[in-house]
Amino acid sequence: MIITKEQVLQALGNVEEPDLKKDLVTLNMIQDIHIEGLNVSFSVILTTPACPLKALIENACRNAISHFISKEAVVSVNMTSRVTTQKNTGVPGVKNIIAVASGKGGVGKSTVAANLALGLAKSGAKVGLIDADIYGPSVPIMFGLEGARPQASVVDGKTRIEPIEKYGIKLLSIGFFTDPNQPVPWRGPMVSTAVKQLFNDADWGELDYLVIDLPPGTGDIHITITQTFPVTGAVIVTTPQNVALADAKKGVGMFMMPAINVPILGVVENMSYFTPAELPDNKYYIFGKGGGQKLASQLDVPFLGEIPLVKSISDSGDAGIPTILQEDGVMTKAFTDMAQRVAQQVAISNAKALGNGAIATV
Ligand SMILES: Nc1ncnc2c1ncn2[C@@H]1O[C@H](COP(=O)(O)OP(=O)(O)OP(=O)(O)O)[C@@H](O)[C@H]1O
Ligand SMILES: [Mg+2]
């Protein structure tokens, strides 16, 4: 029997991308088809390396060849990715900007932002993280970079700040430019200028995702960033208590205002339940159960996951090594799953913004 390229395309035309609800061939996701006798190989270009449906799509491809062409075919699938983008983010080379926000302070934005950035990078994406919290920068401590000072370099005749690279991601924090012992009395216009410089005057290079750790609430920094840079979407962090949920709603309200208009990628519930390290199967819902999920359904946005309350998270934050890099257990799984869901929502949002056509990549 002779297998043809057309047969392969026809067979894979039966495989639907579950999120984008179109087949892989229409979406232009199949490339490099090679056939030698019964050996069939091809690449599937996913919209993110952090795709949670990777294994499912690969299986569906194998089944389609076996079902529609021949059970004898020996199939080799190369699962690869090219992260999509939908609009100019205002930062050259950066495909997607993801803002991590909450209404209330101290709910775990910085923890979520750091572990999200590292989770995306772990899957193979190129990632940057901006700590835009002028009043209480966290990245220097969380990444063990206290006292670090970024270098400046001259690129195309312009002076550029070089982000600091650590654990495979590029970082900039307003805290790299201030003295923690000398509090700076920031005024509105200074804040706005300083924050814009973190985006505009830095040499970010090519990034799939630039994650922004925002300060609590809804202030100048949020407005500056969202009005200057087209943010791909916002991740809202809340804890299960009613007061946090009410504040999270206010945070969401700000992003939905017509003048700001940033899509909400979903809600992450942090400190969902307490788990003692020695009894990881025991879950104590000390602040109530299901609040984050309820908020997500009220707002009609995806729920991106529950992150348990464990002492090791705050220890790891203080020790300068974020949790996702430290243990191989419940926390790493919670953060990795969350990062995949965020990447999935970015891909869906990009596909929607691009309309019905094939997936555009820049
Ligand atoms: N799931 C968790 N389990 C245990 N400790 C946590 C968890 N999430 C965050 N923490 C700890 O709670 C404190 C506050 O977290 P974090 O700094 O991430 O919050 P934030 O929302 O960024 O705060 P701020 O509003 O001040 O910016 C930190 O000490 C952090 O290590
Ligand atoms: Mg913070």
Note down, in words, how this protein is organized.
- The chain is an alpha/beta fold.
- It folds into two domains: 5-81, GMP Synthetase, Chain A, domain 3, CATH 3.30.300.130; 94-354, 3-Layer(aba) Sandwich (Rossmann fold), CATH 3.40.50.
- It contains ten helices and 15 strands.
- The protein has helices at 5-12, 54-68, 109-122, 139-142, 188-200, 220-228, 242-256, 291-299, 311-319, 330-353; strands at 16-17, 22-23, 30-36, 39-46, 74-81, 94-101, 127-131, 152-155, 158-161, 164-166, 169-173, 207-213, 233-238, 264-274, 303-309.
- The strands form four sheets. Strands 10-11-7-12-6-13-14-15 form an eight-stranded mixed beta sheet, with helices on both faces.
- Strand 1 (16-17) and strand 2 form a beta hairpin.
- The model has no long low-confidence stretch (mean pLDDT 91).
- The chain binds adenosine-5'-triphosphate and magnesium ion.
- This is Iron-sulfur cluster carrier protein.
- InterPro entries: FSCA_dom_sf, MIP18-like, Mrp-like_CS, Mrp/NBP35_ATP-bd, NUBPL-like, P-loop_NTPase, YlxH/NBP35.
CATH topology of the largest domain: Rossmann fold
| Overall body shape | globular
The percentage helix is 25-40%
Unreliable residue runs: none
How do the strands line up in the largest sheet? 10-11-7-12-6-13-14-15
Strand runs, count = 15
N-to-C SSE series?
HEEEEHEEHEHEEEEHEHEHEHEHH
Count of discrete domains: 2
Largest sheet: 8 strands, mixed
Taking all Cα atoms into account, the compactness measure Rg is: 22 Å
- Which structural class matches the secondary elements? alpha/beta
Distinct ligand kinds: adenosine-5'-triphosphate, magnesium ion
**What is the mean pLDDT?**
91
Count of helical segments?
A: 10
**Corresponding CATH architecture of the largest domain:** 3-Layer(aba) Sandwich
Report, as a whole number of angstroms, the end-to-end distance.
40 Å
Name the CATH homologous superfamily of the largest domain: P-loop containing nucleotide triphosphate hydrolases
CATH top-level class of the largest domain = Alpha Beta
Q: What percentage of amino acids are in beta strands?
A: 15-25%
Family: In the C-terminal section; belongs to the Mrp/NBP35 ATP-binding proteins family. In the N-terminal section; belongs to the MIP18 family.
Function: Binds and transfers iron-sulfur (Fe-S) clusters to target apoproteins. Can hydrolyze ATP.
InterPro entries: FSCA_dom_sf (IPR034904), MIP18-like (IPR002744), Mrp-like_CS (IPR000808), Mrp/NBP35_ATP-bd (IPR019591), NUBPL-like (IPR044304), P-loop_NTPase (IPR027417), YlxH/NBP35 (IPR033756)
Keywords: ATP-binding, Hydrolase, Iron, Iron-sulfur, Metal-binding, Nucleotide-binding
